[in-house]
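Weekly structure sync - notes
Attendees: PM, LS, DV (DV joined late)
Agenda: review two folding runs queued last week.

Item 1: First target. Sequence and structure tokens pasted below for the record.
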Amino acid sequence: MTNSRVHGLPRWSLAVPPLAFVVLVLSWGRDLGAILLILVCAGLGAAVIAAVHHAEIVAHRVGEPFGTLILALAVTIIEVALIVTLMASGGDKAASLARDTVFAAVMITCNGILGIALVVGSLKHHVQEFRVHASSGALAVMTALVTLSLVLPTFTTSASGPRFSGPQLAFAGVVSLVMYGVFVFVQTVRHRDYFLPVEPASTNADEEEEHHAAAPSGKVALFSLGLLFVCLVAVVGLAKTVSPKLESAVESAGAPLAVVGVVIALLVLLPETVAAVRAALRNRLQNSMNLALGSALASIGLTIPAIGIASIWLDGPLVLGLGAKEIVLFALTVAVSTITLATGKATLLQGAVHLMVFSAFLFLAVSP
């Protein structure tokens, strides 16, 4: 133990989670003034950095792909709880909240996070390798989940509008949960080796030392897991806290209200984004893909069953069907991702294409 570390953890990583949670408690339900808004933004950024740090400690202890799975699941579970809470209090205005949030998560993870990781990784390492079996399998599950849960409601006729009937929603929830459960089983048990990072042919001294550093003790890993949960609660809660200010700014700019959901999704997914970029910089692109595609799968696979159950007592309609513009963007994402994942190698070009698709999604969200 040194002056800068306590029980093997940096002091800042121990201080940030409780401080961010205190900021959340102080700001929850209040109208944010200038000073409180600055504190909330600072707490949000610090909580994201701390969350990534503790997620990497846990990942080092449990190994891959469990580390990336833990981070994706933790963020998604809290995000689902936030969606259900907002739907319960939002009335008819929240009818499309689950659809908008899940679709935004898919576009952010499959184009934004993946694109940034590909670009920064290829700028440093030129060409990066990943495992085709793992990434293409995750893409197949994601495509089926989005199509069955968000595209089909646009074309079904049992209920008016882009909605599922009760039995259809129950079926979609069960199918989503089963497919995600099978994916997790394959990822962690049956074909775990598919999801392990491809070890680079050569690494520098710092990377070699990091790859072979001693794993933290079980006590330290459990402590980091608890702090990770606190950080993620703070990230989602602070994102929700700034949403009224975001909504006011969006309305003042004359942009669609759905932009608020996109911005909140961007904030909530910051931990995965930072973790994926750090993995790509270390030439471990498979970890980045596990995070990006795994987060998309968790968002759909857990949200649809959750809102299906919550719809039993929630009032108001539940709109799940995507519009024509969103379906086109999703089809483009699937086509581009299929080509990207076909060879097992990624360059700057693939990353740039994904980022352009992501920029089109953001632009059309603001200017539909």
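Item 2: Second target, run right after the first with the same settings.
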Amino acid sequence: MPRQADIARIAGVSQATVSVVLGGNSAVRMAESTRRRVLEVAEQLGYVPHPVATRLASARSNLLGLYTFRATFPTDVADSYYPILVGVEEEAAALGQDLILFTGTSGPGASHEAAIRRTRMADGCLFFGRHVPEEPVARLVDSGFPLVYIGRRAELDGRIPYVGADYVSASAEVLTRLKGLGHREIRYVRESDEAPSSTDRQRGVLEAAPETTVVRIDGPELDPGTVRAWVRDGVTAVVVEGTDTGAAYTAVRKAIDAARLSTPDDLSLAVLGGPPEVSGFAVPMREMGRRAVRLLVDLVTERQTTPQQLLWCPPVAGSTVGAPRTR
């Protein structure tokens, strides 16, 4: 790689002059022809400042980290997290920021502890994933390192900056719609795993329809006989938690099909953040990625901002919800 010394030798100037020109220091007086000659040589050689050296000189490098607590980054366009990456990349490019993907947790013998420490090579870091290892993240927060979590976080006594979705209001709206159509016997199916997004969805469900029965399942399997029994008992609607795994929705959809029931004729089906053809609401993943980048840049530059933000989830009419069938 070309160095400033190489530029100085070819341009016929001192290395200090090259440093002043490439550092953009206009306070130092010099001939415009000298400044132009240095820039032309740097361009010809393809000189790129070393990010660590730039960081030491200016305290910022315009590098933002992106860290996930999953084993790999989502690369499939069907992955629920993929739109987040699209939003992150779009906004980073718009703001003139480069991205570093931290992948240390996928290697042999890797740990979150060591990988999270490495995020300090960036100006700040975006985090996303269903769970948070609290100790290493707490150290970053306590040290004042700028970070933003994509998704609401309640850990560390609410000190983690985040951009999330307003699942409480959106879930309540779905249940309010079902009740308005005449549904009274409703089952809410969710995964057994605990996370703030799960807590928020269930809270919204029970705020709008306190009589709703909550059913927890493990994995993408639900006995079709269970669904048939619900219908016999007068259940007219099933609401399902939407997650990055989609396990609850997969289980319910398979069980309904295996029980030879149709939606919405036999049973209305709503998903709290799921496929676009299913009634419920959409999670603004792409916008969450964009907003998270903007919030992180605000924190890095110490601009006045709101460190915890919730975005509206647009409702999805879908084709799987209707009025209860007269029995």
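Discussion on item 2: The chain has a mean pLDDT of 88.
Action: LS to circulate a short write-up before next sync.
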